[in-house]
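The authors assume throughout that readers already know how a fold can be written as discrete tokens. For illustration, here is how one protein appears when written out as sequence plus structure tokens.
>
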Amino acid sequence: MKDISEDLAILWESWSRRKYPTYLFLALCLNLVLASTVFAATGDTFSRPQIYALGILGLGTVALSAYLFVVMFQPERF
């Protein structure tokens, strides 16, 4: 039992230092939901790879917009 708790402590410590893989995983999960919704709304107009590419493009656009918004109003942080 002590080994498991030590392993969990190590996993928790490494997870708290590396948050970008978690953010990437959550973005991909959001893209799955977004792509399914867009695919259902458009029907057979777009193929499935095109829908996933549009979802990734949309998420990237929103992320870049949020970053630029923060940079514009808090330039001293950068």
Q: What stands out?
A: The longest helix spans residues 48-73. The chain has a mean pLDDT of 82. Residues 31 and 58 are 9 Å apart (CA to CA).
